[in-house]
Design brief:
It is built from one helix and 47 strands. With about 600 residues, the protein is mostly beta strands.
Length: about 600
């Protein structure tokens, strides 16, 4: 668990649940990352934006695959206060020739007003150079400045050099340039009052102040309650006052004021009055005294127990009000919230005056009040160890989610039943009772409990598992073969093809049923009582196509037919062959006869021509 780029003040340990991270004021966004078991879910990670100055509390927790929830890992991200330092490191004034012009008094970063007496009539502009103590502060109005206000050679010009701190606080240093003007030399406090953020005057000249201010006493120490955040010293005087104003305690319980007055001429200065303001130590109490939901106490609330879980049905208004009171400290996390479907986690924190944080977690499951099953399945196995691959499904009952009693009839040879199903509310409802059960008696009872997600409703389904003989509907063959021929058999294949020679007149067919109580026969060859296994000689195989029909009758009367298609080849016809040969010989003889006759005719013709 970590905050990217910003380490915890202590090394992470899975068994440690509180961590602190400090980030600069410039950082207003962080990213929390973490790792857990691959099948666990982590809640509370991610990017956290718009950090407040000071403390920001984030809660991270883990939910395991089984639904177990870890304790809260609490990360306190403390965003630093912006710097209020708007003081200068140095302030110099130069004439046009680069010569340093001295103030009437030495520069001190906490003194904001300075005087320059100009003797030369020729100095009409100056160059001001200044640098802040805090690099993040900004200085204005430096560089070349025109000295205005010239009247008959006399002038009084005041140049202001504002310095803006990182926090936006602005201090103004002033330089007053005088010629032939005499300033008052008196430096004297007339009124002084120190106010707390509770508007109480803790020391002052006011009659209502707790401690009266005496000019002859230059040192004071007062104590204020811890809940005082700032002090404001207000001084009225003849001259210029230094060291007054508003100061905050921040992370310290001590504020020190050093206040004094300088004359306008900067020649005289009053005594320095030092006031130490000590804030009381912070209380450590950070426990809740009550925790309420919609004005009603959270059940079994105990200040020493930090986690609570409740369930509310969908029928209730999703807008809730979380309230709390504490024995001491500041409470955060209470107010009005809107519930989302499922798990809603609300951290309520109590921050003691000393900064220690105690987090209470209120988890509200906004869920359905549904305690019904959506489906129910029963399978039985006759093996010594339940075997799902050969188990038989018993589904000869009508399931109704709102019917809670069922009679399930199974075969007498069944040794185990496996009960499965699903709830209608698959997300939130809890089901107890699904599983594998050994069936030893002729009747067993199994109870299925369904608890709604809100925990308000629990329904019980009662299953009476009754053993009795149930006729089998298995009408399949275990084997099929033909003597002298190869036949590839599959119980789920119901058509087979076989070719035989023309001189084959009969076949020997072997067949056996898969179920011991099923009966096998060959249609038109039923002899005697049908049996589970047969060997039948099928005769009368004719030339061409023949179909042998194997009939399987299950125990419950279900019938199945396997068809053996036999094609018998044609037998040779020898008479036709002899006649064909005789015809061919006759044809050949006739051709030869005509050829010889034609040859003789040609010879006779030649002879006659020769005689002539």
């Amino acid at each position: 668990l970590e905050v990217v780029d910003y380490p915890f003040t202590e090394v992470f340990d899975a068994n440690r649940y509180n961590y602190q991270v400090n980030v600069p004021y410039q950082v207003d966004m962080i990213e929390i990352i973490g790792e857990a078991h691959p099948k666990a879910l982590i809640y509370g990670l991610g990017t956290k934006r718009d950090l407040n100055v000071g403390s920001n509390i984030f809660v991270v927790y883990v939910v395991s695959e089984s639904g177990a929830r870890s304790l809260n890992y609490q990360i306190e991200v403390i965003r630093e206060e912006p710097s209020d330092d708007a003081t200068l490191k140095f302030l110099h004034v130069y004439d046009a020739n680069g010569n340093l012009i001295e103030f009437t008094s030495s520069f001190v970063s906490t003194t904001y007003d300075y005087i320059v007496y100009l003797d030369s009539q020729n100095i009409m502009s100056v160059n001001i150079d200044a640098k802040p103590n805090d690099p993040k502060a900004q200085v204005f109005n430096t560089g070349n400045q025109l000295l205005e206000g010239l009247i008959d050679g006399k002038y009084h010009t005041i140049i202001s050099i504002p310095v803006m701190a990182e926090s936006g606080k602005v201090l103004k240093y002033t330089i007053s340039f005088y010629r032939e003007i005499k300033l008052e030399d008196i430096a004297e406090i007339e009124e002084l009052n120190l106010y707390g953020s509770d508007n109480v005057i803790y020391i002052g000249t006011d009659l209502l102040s707790k401690v009266q201010f005496d000019k002859s006493n230059t040192g004071y120490t007062i104590t204020v309650p811890y809940d005082i955040s700032t002090m404001n010293l207000q001084v009225k005087a003849r001259g210029i006052v230094y060291g007054d104003g508003i100061k905050a305690f921040g992370n310290s319980n001590l504020i020190v004021y050093s206040v004094y007055v300088k004359s306008l001429s900067q020649i005289n200065q009053s005594d320095v009055y030092t006031i130490h303001v000590i804030r009381e130590e912070a209380l450590t109490e950070n426990k809740l005294s009550s925790l309420t939901l919609n004005g009603v106490n959270v059940p079994n609330f105990n200040p020493d127990i930090n986690s609570y879980e409740m369930s509310l049905p969908f029928t209730q208004n999703p807008i809730i009000q979380i309230g709390a009171t504490a024995f001491g400290g500041t409470i955060t996390g209470i107010g009005t919230f809107e519930l989302k479907s499922g798990k809603n986690v609300f951290p309520v924190t109590v921050r003691a005056q000393n900064g220690e944080i105690n987090t209470y977690t209120l988890t509200i499951n906004y869920v359905d009040s549904n305690a019904l099953l959506e489906s129910l399945h029963i399978k039985g196995s006759d093996k010594d160890v339940y075997d799902d691959s050969t188990a038989k499904l018993y589904d000869d009952f009508i399931f109704n989610p709102e019917a809670f009693e069922y009679i399930i009839k199974i075969d007498t040879n069944i040794k185990y039943v496996r009960i499965t199903g699903a709830a209608q509310d698959t997300v939130g409802a809890q089901v107890v009772g699904f599983g594998t059960y050994k069936v030893e008696n002729t009747e067993e009872k199994v109870y299925i409990y369904v608890r709604s997600a809100d925990g308000l409703i629990t329904n019980v389904y009662t299953l009476r598992i009754v053993k009795e003989h149930i006729p089998s509907n298995n009408a399949q063959l275990a084997s099929l073969s033909v003597g002298g021929y190869e036949l590839t058999f599959d119980k789920n294949t119901y058509q087979y093809y076989l070719s035989v020679k023309g001189d084959v007149n009969d076949l020997l067919v072997y067949a056996s049923a898969l179920h011991p109580n099923a009966k096998v026969s060959i249609v038109d060859y039923e002899h005697g009582t049908p049996s589970q296994e047969i060997q039948v000689k099928v005769d009368g195989i004719e030339q061409g196509k023949n179909v042998i029909l194997i009939k399987v009758v299950a125990e419950d009367g279900t019938e199945t037919y396997y068809r053996l298609h036999v094609v018998k080849e044609a037998q040779p016809d020898y008479l036709l062959t002899v006649l064909l040969i005789a015809v061919i010989l006759l044809w050949v003889s006739t051709v030869v006869f005509f050829l010889i006759k034609q040859s003789r005719q040609k010879k006779d013709d030649r002879r006659n021509r020769m005689i002539i």
